[in-house]
């Protein structure tokens, strides 16, 4: 049987060690360690994750959490868009499972249009969508289907692009040092509300 939890750390080797600690905190789960890049490149990793900063310093841990949040913790589309996409994709739901509501889902708030990008999204495709001057709310299948560097994602954000995912990643917990756990006020804006903290 495959892993049920992805333990994501800045480096793959460190993630493997931290996964052992997560396993002790989550009986019955089968965690596997990934670097952030390794998780994004994996063929079919668990959609449920634990973020595992290294703990060298609170500042470096916050930097990692900010990067992971920007890259992984995208909301599901609003119910209205989910229903519309389900109709477009037909009864089978296309090539992917039905959408799961993520903990940080964004409501429509008057949003009237969004762009659905199925399959892999690279930089050329993103630039073409941007040049078409269509909606700046883009819905993809999963954050892992977006193959765009952090720097270029930041550029798209400056252009007004906001991402949502039909298969959002679910943050199960933050696996933190005591120092990071005490700095909750500093990382709270980066993570979904009420994220559990497992202190190591």
Q: Count up the domains.
A: 2
Structural class of the secondary elements?
alpha/beta
Overall 3D geometry?
globular
Instruction: Calculate the terminal CA-CA distance, rounded to whole Å.
Output: 27 Å
Which runs of at least 5 residues are low in confidence (pLDDT < 50)? 92-109
**Strands across the major sheet, in which order?**
2-1-3-9-10
Helix and strand string, N-terminal first?
EHEHEHHEEHEEHEEHHE
Write down the Rg: 17 Å
Approximately how much helix is present in the residues? Answer: 25-40%
Oligomer: single chain
**CATH top-level class of the largest domain:** Alpha Beta
Write down how many β-strands occur, each being a DSSP E stretch of 2 or more residues. 10
Number of helices: 8
Write the layout of secondary structure elements.
Elements: E1 5-9, H1 12-25, E2 31-35, H2 36-41, E3 48-51, H3 58-72, H4 79-89, E4 115-117, E5 121-122, H5 123-131, E6 137-140, E7 146-147, H6 150-158, E8 162-165, E9 170-176, H7 178-182, H8 184-187, E10 197-199
Overview of this structure, please?
It is a single chain. About 10% of the residues have low confidence. The chain folds into 2 domains: about 100 residues, Rossmann fold; about 90 residues, no CATH class. The longest helix has 15 residues. Helices cover about 35% and strands about 20% of the residues. With about 200 residues, it is of the alpha/beta class. The strands form 3 sheets. The chain has a 5-stranded parallel β-sheet with strand order 2-1-3-9-10.
């Amino acid at each position: 049987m495959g892993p049920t939890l992805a333990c994501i750390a800045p480096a793959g080797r460190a993630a493997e060690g931290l996964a052992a600690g997560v396993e002790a905190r989550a009986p019955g789960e089968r965690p596997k360690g990934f670097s952030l890049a390794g998780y994004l490149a994996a063929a079919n990793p668990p959609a449920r994750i634990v973020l595992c900063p290294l703990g060298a310093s609170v500042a470096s841990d916050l930097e990692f959490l900010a990067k992971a949040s920007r890259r992984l913790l995208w909301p599901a589309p609003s119910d209205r868009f989910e229903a519309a996409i389900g109709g477009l994709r037909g009864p089978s739901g296309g090539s992917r499972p039905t959408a799961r509501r993520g903990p940080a889902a964004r409501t429509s708030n008057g949003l009237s249009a969004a762009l659905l990008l199925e399959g892999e999204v690279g930089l050329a495709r993103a630039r073409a969508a941007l040049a078409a001057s269509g909606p700046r709310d883009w819905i993809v299948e999963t954050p892992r289907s977006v193959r765009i560097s952090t720097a270029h994602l930041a550029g798209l954000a400056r252009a007004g692009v906001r991402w949502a995912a039909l298969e959002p990643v679910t943050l199960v917990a933050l696996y933190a040092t005591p120092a990071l756990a005490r700095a909750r006020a500093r990382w709270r804006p980066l993570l979904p509300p009420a994220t559990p903290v497992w202190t190591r």
